[in-house]
Amino acid sequence: MTADPPQASDPSRPPAVVPPPREERSGGGHGLPVGPPPAAAAPGPLPPHGGGHTPPPVLPPAVDPVEEESEEQPEPPAARPTWFGEPATPPAESSGPAAKPHRADHREWHGIVLVTGTDTEVGKTVATAAMAAAAQAAGLRVAVIKPGQTGIATGAPTDAEVVTRLAGPETVRTLAEYPEPLAPLAAAKVAGLPALALFDVVDAVRAEAEKHDLVLVEGAGGLLVPMGLRPSGEAWTFADLATTLGSGVIVVTRAGLGTLNHTALTLEALDRRGVPAKVILGAWPADPELVHWANLGELVPHLVGALPSGAGSMDPGVFRRSAPGWLTPALHGVLDNWRVWAEEAG
Question: Within 13 Å, how many C-alpha atoms sit on residue 264's CB side?
Fold first, then answer.
């Protein structure tokens, strides 16, 4: 047996924008946890794209969450809630020729998937709608749950209404609504309404998971926003919901200045709790600047999607047809090469 030859580094990668991976590195360039090593980018620099914009960096192909896991790893226990591509129920045995299931791709996320953000107004709802649309286009039965909707008194469309209009999933549920645009627990106290009970939310989510292939649960604000109360009277957060359900989390983040710190903090908080997580850029600008390209280069190892700015204003039909192109195969999309995506985006 001969050893595999060492992979040559890509001489075309601009170090100032996308630093090459280092072996002994405990985190990303700004404290980001190290994701799976990206595949080598195609040789040659990107062609100039004119317009006076900063040219995009050379980026590696997209890496799916478990694409590089060893095949020798043991299968997880059947009783554990599913996330990385595990079917919601084991396939039935049959003596005849079995039809190939749609969900044979181990890279895809199924079961219960939570959606949080690095902050409020980062694009969680539109990203949730895009994930629902892409999954439905792939033939999955999809449910979307919003545990606590706040700001009803403002008259703005609710998150459930936005998701229904853009993606039209099979099931959309809101478990509690509060008038003021505050964190759910604070909004409940101000309005004198019952706070969300953690295990009521858990039961509702698991009930939908029994009837759907994918259940997307959208949070409120960031990961540690107080959502409701435990039976003990203590507040619980979206991170607590993730650990209780044993589910993976999609983190929606901004593309601009400050996003590396916010994303690193959120990913670190999830990693310390043993929660698998990946990242979606909630709104990629039409005219990206140097800071956007630099942030993209740092975030690529964690990315499973990037939505264009203004996606939420699209015609629903256009949105549903476009959504798979914004997401990688891990989220039932077709985006499989960030270098090609960068050329088109630029």
Answer: 15
